[in-house]
Write a structure and sequence with these properties.
Strand content: 5-15%
Shape: elongated
Largest sheet: 2 strands, parallel
Radius of gyration: 28 Å
Strand order of the largest sheet: 1-2
Length: 153
Amino acid sequence: MILEIPEENTNYYEQARKEYLKDRLKEGNDLLDQKNFERAQTIFSEIVKLQPNDAEAKELLKYATNEPVYIKGNEAMSNGKYRQAYYTFEKILNYKDAKDLQALSREKALFKVMIVSFENRSNLRSAHHQLKSSIQSVVLKINDPFFGTYRKG
């Protein structure tokens, strides 16, 4: 069975589809203006499904998806919640300056430890070297983005 669709019906469908997508794009933009990112994201996703080569809809979808996360990260920074900001920006590293903001939030949240030399007053000649080495070994194995060591001077 072959389905034949008259050309005037195809033309009508294409015109109706274009009008529909144009209306949806406007609706999505209006929702962005209202900061209703979730609903805008749904609309732009629909447009991209129906018209995969629509660069504007793709860009607006990216904005609707990433901007609320970006705002949340900035709010965390403003409230001094640097660890929360770090992990929030991690979700959107390729968006705006999120990578730089993540680095800044890490720097502000960083807990720094300095391991200093100390004098050996025991009868064991190399006890202080062994102790310092053991401490350094443990500290360097800590896998936490907010923990770091630094050298004196």
